[in-house]
Amino acid sequence: MDSLASASAEPEASIEYFDSIVGRGVRLRIGERSYIDCASGTFNLSLGYSNRQVIDALHAQLERASHLSSEFTRAKSEQVFRLLKPFLPEHIGAFWFRDITGSTANECAIRIAQKATGRTDVVSLFLSHHGQSAAATALSGNAFRQRSFSLPFAGSVKIPAPDCANCFYRQSPDSCGMLCARRLDDFVEFASSGRVAALLIEPVLGNGGNLVPPAGYYGVLREVCDRHGILVIADEVQTGFGRTGTFFASTGIAADLRPDIITFAKGAGGIGIPAAGVVMRPELDVLEPWEHSSTSGANPLSLVAMEETVRHIRDHGVLEGVTRTSAVVEAGLRALEDRFSCVRNARGVGLMRAFDLPTPQDVARFITVARDEGLILRGSRYGFGTAVKVRPPLIVTEDEAHEIVDRLTSALIRFEKDEDPR
Ligand SMILES: Cc1ncc(COP(=O)(O)O)c(C=O)c1O
Questions:
Q1: Domain harbouring 288, CATH code
Q2: pLDDT band of 3, cuts 50, 70, 90
Q3: Ligand 1 pocket mutation, candidates 122, 142, 145, 238, criterion most atoms within 8 A of CB
Q4: What is the whole-number distance in angstroms between the Cα of residue 237 and the centre of ligand 1?
């Protein structure tokens, strides 16, 4: 951890710097400079920095009561679930809104799956990220966050991810027969305790490199899970609330997954208000109130933020906007791939996009150059570390989407000339 002395030595760490930061829409103004935030904050600003509808509703709630125990917020939770219901797969009919982080929402889903099935094990994927609580870290498919700790999750089984550019089985998508999904059979038989409760999966592997599985993947996985009586938990912490162009990936690109349980967080709070939730088949509504909750679970500010976020997405054509603007970003990234030899593997869905640069060092340098061009971008320590993620808030306009592509182009020209603004 930074010591106070070393932290204050950095100009960026000063209170004046912090106080100078103002977010408006998709832009962040820091001192005299303005940036388009293509990281959507911590990938949680679905509606950008300053959505008036959410802010006004929060102010009104703050005036009434900033906190209420879940005893008093049940009706609000039900109202939010009713608002969400039309955007969920039809078979989802129950909810558990006692979380404000994706990590604990995933832990809640695991508890539900274990209690409902009477089984223990959880299958997850290489390259996955499910959060940073002890269980969520243990189930995530990367060593770097576990290395310094002992975080065992008895019954964790990891299977190769559908990462076609780096196929674990050294196959190609046209002839692989979807081995990465089919071989789940073998993992259940030879790598688990034989008592697998659930498969936990991100419909698009976000931190692992923005990996979109090939067509047919979700259906094969579902079929194998059905054969073994394994529940499917879709971790929609990144993909939920409109990010992939449908409200949930589970009603769009990942519909064939037919998840039994869906978790969400991040974008659910609209402007970054911590909010999370678990929704499920009605027969999986098995938890007692004391079996999964926390001090801030079901707090009124989170519920109000979630309510207004759903309303705003529904009433302001946000999903249709994502369809339009994602087409601009997609075409722009493909053009960059054609023009710059260092840009590879442009990929993604909706406003969840990425491309690769040759090395993690290139990614770090490019992000610095792009910052100088007025773009906030993030890479990923996960996987191969070569992804540059392009994920603006869902309210980005077509003009702003073009501006993003123009700034990426300028940054790549400078990057190829080997410029480093530091
Ligand atoms: C797919 C996914 N699941 C779970 C989490 C954990 O969410 P939180 O950081 O709110 O605990 C994250 C966070 O990055 C995530 O990307």
A1: 3.40.640.10
A2: very low
A3: 238
A4: 6
